[in-house]
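Minutes, project check-in
Item: structure for the 192-residue chain
Input as provided by the requester:
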Amino acid sequence: MPLSQQIEFLLHADKLKTVVRNNKLVSGERFESSAEHSWHVTLQTLVLGGHAPKDVRLDHVLKLLTVHDLVEIEAGDHWVTEDNAAQVAEKEALAAETIFAMLPPSQRDEFKSLWWEFEESATAEAKFANAMDALHPILIVFSPNASGFCHTALSAEFIRKKKRPKLEPYPDLWAYAQTLLEDAVKKGNLIP
């Protein structure tokens, strides 16, 4: 494999550190970068991996999570709504083509396959990866010592509706997420 091509990809991937997300750090002092989110959701998965079904290959889940946000280098981070979901999906798919084309062919194909697997969320591993990605913002925004800062006015019911399909298959995680949302309502950080 051409080392120079792999190094070029890695240096380009470093740009993920400059993509600013809509969520603040737990401390509330600043907005997180996509790279920080990617690292933290991967660590979260290592810690909470025991909540996945027994047949889920955690090493594969970690690959999916490592690759899925790389498209934000080209596409940016977006708050996905019903109004912009198709546009964001198209923009990210084009970004995946651009970014993964930097890799040698076998790695290009592997990374694109991982990215699409996460997006399609059809495998057990992709479903758990999507659950981890869905849980992460709830944890960093609404956990007991978090700032509670929400980038847009949201209701707990809206978040439940949006996150339920990804988190409900994991009862302990879904119950915990709902507890955090209920507490956020009590604190005045969310409307019911």
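Outcome recorded: The domain at 3-187 is CATH 1.10.3210.10 (Hypothetical protein af1432).
No further action items on this chain.
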